[in-house]
What does this fold into?
Amino acid sequence: MIRLQTEKGEISISDAALSNITGAAATSCFGVKGMAYRSMTDGLVHLLRREAMSKGVRIIPHEEGDISIELHIIVEHGVNIAAVCRSIINQVRYMVSENTGASIRSIDVCVDSMNM
It folds into this structure.
């Protein structure tokens, strides 16, 4: 849960809401197959459905009021991974700041798998 102070009062935003906004922004980018989740039991990477998209997102709040975001994704085969990651970072930064007003310290994109 992050808290934003405005001139009219305090706004609390849940991690689930931030995760849904972030996951939707990331999966809307070209070349992204979906969000990834590494299973602890077998160590394999699984493609997440839309309902469980937040498992591939980690929100880290900082004491200064800003947040860091860590994304785990699966990309399509044959795309430029660096270009896809730059696109995700720009899209996520824009969507989160536009929808919540939260300041973002960093966005880390982890490509866990490439899908054919």
The beta strands are 2-6, 9-13, 32-38, 45-47, 57-61, 67-76, 104-115. The CA atoms of residues 72 and 110 lie 5 Å apart. The first strand starts at residue 2 and ends at 6.
